[in-house]
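Contributing new complexes? Match this layout with zinc ion.
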Amino acid sequence: MAYWNQRTVAKRVSCTGIGLHSGKPATLTLAPAASDAGITFVRMDLGVEIPARNEFVVDTTLSTSIGSGKARVSTVEHVMAALHGMGIDNCRVEVDGPEIPILDGSAAPFVCLVHEAGVKVQSAGKRYLVVDQVIELRDGDKVARLEPSDTFAVEFTADFGHPLITNQAFRVTLSDRSFEREVARARTFCFRRDIERMQAMGLAKGGSLENAIVVDEFSILNPEGLRFPDEFARHKVLDAVGDLALAGMPIVGALIAVKSGHAMNQALVRKVLADPTSHRVVRVTAEADAPAIRANVPALVVPNGQIA
Ligand SMILES: [Zn+2]
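Output block (do not edit by hand):
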């Protein structure tokens, strides 16, 4: 019998950086939250709390934004991926502006923040969304499909019709160790040809080689090159983990995605949540004598047959 307790961060930790699209500086703080509170973004400058759930998604243009009333927080997907990948169920993500800092364009700085805070094991058992039926979205050659699986796995195929990013696939079974080792460091990327267009739309104002991979016709412009040969597909996995985290709880299922993006990922989550026959919500039994602080416990992998 497996016992998995909910987790939060053990103390407040902060970092500061600029928003990729707004170019504005912001300070982000991860703070502990109670059992079953889930992840909540808090606009400290406005005093508004926005639950990190699919129903609060207000925009999916190049990044995922959530909002409540006039308050919004954009580019939530990388910090969501880090929290989800590290098995954090409950956390207040406080930010003093409209956009989460982009930092180095990956989830690694947020993983470091979780390590700095430490992980507090809570008394309640974890809740999981267990996929029972295949749910699929198709749009031309784009696919996003959730299938039943014993674990949380993500497979992404990226194809941008570009010599460096053609039919690039990456598949990973998520535990906090595999997320940190294989996914967290993959950076966001863009094409040089798109930068002017994005900036005309008022986006990517904070973009630079410090926080994104920039690709031109034939080459990577970043002097340090890539962190993984398939960093593009790995980043798309990272984005998908962050987007699926807006289901509000860890998913036990496999995401198969081809050329999907934030909009399609959120539409898939919406479709699953709207269809009660597609999934069950299962709360596992908490471990009564769980140590209060325990790092590096794989929290996402649920062995077959132990949660039904
Ligand atoms: Zn991203």
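Reviewers usually confirm one structural detail per submission. For this one: Residues 77 and 242 are 4 Å apart (CA to CA).
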